[in-house]
C-alpha cells in the first residue's frame, strides 16, 4: 500500500493497518468505503458553509484578503501535520475544510465579479469530472497500478515544482510565467493540469478502497476524505483559472 499520491505519499495507510491489525477486535471500528464517503460529504458541507463567509464579504464590497490568505496558510499547515500524523485527521480534516473554504469563497467571489457565471461553470466542471472519474474507476475502465501511480505522482510533483519556482522568480526578476495570461500555450497548460488533477482522483479512490480492504483504523476514513477534498479543491481552482483565461479572450 505504498501510495504515490502526494497526500498519501507516506506509509500512513500501511503503518496504520499494521498497527491496528494486532489489536482489532470489532470490525465496526475499522475503515469502510461508506464511512469515508459520509465524511467526505461532511467535509464538503463544511467547506461550502465556510466559503460563504468570504464570498459574502467580497460580494458586499469588503476585503476578504486576510481571511483568504489565513485560510490558505492554515489549510496547508493542517495538510502537512495530517500527512505525518494521520491519527489527528479526525480533528484536522474538518479544520482544513473550514480553512480552505475561507480561501475558496473569497477567490470564487473575485473571479465571479470579473467574469459573471464563472463559479457555476467551475463547480459544474469539477463535479462532472469527479463523476466521470468515479464511473471510470468503478467499472474498471481505468485500473490503478504501480506504473499509473508513479507517472501521476511524478507529473504532479513536476507541476508543483514549476508553480513554486515560477512564483519565487517573480519576486527577484521581471518574469512572467508562461502559464500566466490567456495565450493558447497558457490555456493548454491549464488543460494539462486539469487532466493531471483528475488523474489524482483515481489515486484517491484506489487508496480509500485499499485502506478499507486492509481494515485500516477508523480514523483513516477522515484521512481518506481529506485527501479527496484536497484533490477536488485543486481541480476547482484549476477550472477557475482555465475558464477565466477563456473568458478574457472573448
Automatic annotation (TrEMBL):
It comes from the Bacteria. The chain crosses the membrane at residues 41-59, 65-84, 91-111, 117-139, 151-173, 185-203, 223-243. The keyword Membrane applies. Keywords: Membrane, Transmembrane, Transmembrane helix. It holds the Pfam family BaxI_1. The keyword Membrane applies. PANTHER family: CONSERVED TRANSMEMBRANE PROTEIN-RELATED (PTHR41282). This is Putative YccA/Bax inhibitor family protein. It comes from Flavobacterium aciduliphilum.
